[in-house]
Structure formats: structure tokens, C-alpha cells
Amino acid sequence: KVQHPALDEWAPLDLALTRFTFSTLKRFFPEYDLTWLAEEMEISLPQELNFELEGKNAMRAREYFSHVKNTPLIIPEVMWAKRRILVMEYVTGKRPDDLEYFDKNGIDRDEVSAALARIFNEMIFGTNAPLHCDPHGGNIAIRVNNARKHPHNFD
């Protein structure tokens, strides 16, 4: 994962525009106060753009879930991480909305859904659990793994 070279240049402008937009919205529509979101973004965006921190968080999640039994979760190993470059182990898989792949490989859609729900519930409610706040199809992949026993034949 390599960060776009112009991101450092544009991120402060994006944050300023967000702050301006939400404060203007609040001025005309006080009941829609989203200034808290702009404040939160000013803290979280620089952290999200730091791939070294992302790598550390991935390793923390990997360690945490190594102790959660019967969870078909694979978190790739971080091989090298700097602020704008992240190199991780290559792990194959298909998007969670590739239902044809599931059907062709005998992967139960309900079991995938249940496994994802369990993983994210563990992140939210588990003691000292790492929380992944970007659970979209680009960050989740499903792959067949017939070595696993029922009910999961997937990672």
C-alpha cells in the first residue's frame, strides 16, 4: 500500500473545508450541529494516513484474534511499514459480495455473515479488543479453505 504523493498537500485543505462546511451548516441550521465530526476528523485522519500506525494496529489485531478460537480470520503479517508505505503478506480472496464464488466453492453465505458478525462484535465488545473502523469490501476478502471443519470452510 503506497500513499498518493499529493495526499499530504490536500488533507489539510480537506479538513479545513470540512470544518468550514459544518460550522456554516450549524450557523444556519443549529439543530444539525456536526462540528464535533470535523473535530474528530482532525484527530483521526492524520492517524489513518499513518501506515506505520496501521501496521502496528494490524499486528495488534493479529495477536488479539490468535486467542479467539474458531474464528476464520486471517490477518496478513506486516513485513515492513513506514508512514506512507505498508508492505504486508499477500493473501488471496474474493470480495464478500461475490456470491457466485461462494456458490461455486460451497461456502455458506449465512456462515460468512455469522462469522463477520462475530468478528466485528468481538472488536466492539471484546475486552481490550482492537477496533477496525473501515469494514468494506476492499478490506475484507473471503477464500475457500477446505482444511477447516464445519461450519467454516473459508477464511
Automatic annotation (TrEMBL):
Domain (ABC1 atypical kinase-like): residue spans on this chain: 1-145
Name of the molecule in the record: ABC1 atypical kinase-like domain-containing protein
InterPro entries documented for this protein: ABC1_dom, Kinase-like_dom_sf, Mito_struct-func_regulator
